[in-house]
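DM between two lab members

TW: hey, do you still have the Trafficking protein particle complex subunit entry open?
JB: yeah, one sec
JB: this one, 181 aa:
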Amino acid sequence: MSRPVPRRPEYQKINKDLFVLTYGALVAQLCKDYEKDEDVNKYLDKMGYGIGTRLVEDFLARSCVRRCHSYSEITDIIAQVAFKMYLGVTPSVTCNNASRNEFSLILDKNPLSEFVEELPAGRSSLCYCNLLCGIIRGALEMVHLAADVTFLQDRLKGDSVTEIGITFLKQPNEKKYRRRK
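TW: and the structure you got?
JB:
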């Protein structure tokens, strides 16, 4: 029986670059297919949602994370483990409200827009990396957490950072998961 060949780091770099370039071609094609930016944004979110619903299983199997007890723990896992695992970056996390259900992931460097200098002409409302919002929303929904995920700031639109906002829509019902004695 043969052993699997370990992946070399340069293969991971090539795979990431290939993914980023392919993603750019996908967005360019969607811009040709759809006249409105809103339609492109919806399509990217829908694609991301589908990816997120499937990716969560791989994430849970590979990361060995334990059950989280708060939204801040969940957001930290997304930033420190998931983003690092799949995109090679670690965004910083900030909480945006007193009820502790709104968070921001702040990316100093966005790998999906690595080879993009600016948005296409006439596409000012395009959310180029909207796929990420769909992935996060889909993955959270698969672990029974409804969330609204949107871009708050984008470097491609002239902002200083890329910021993804996550708003958890309902409080977890702890009693539902407790064992009865």
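TW: got it. Strands lie at 92-95, 102-107, 147-153, 162-168. The chain has a mean pLDDT of 86.
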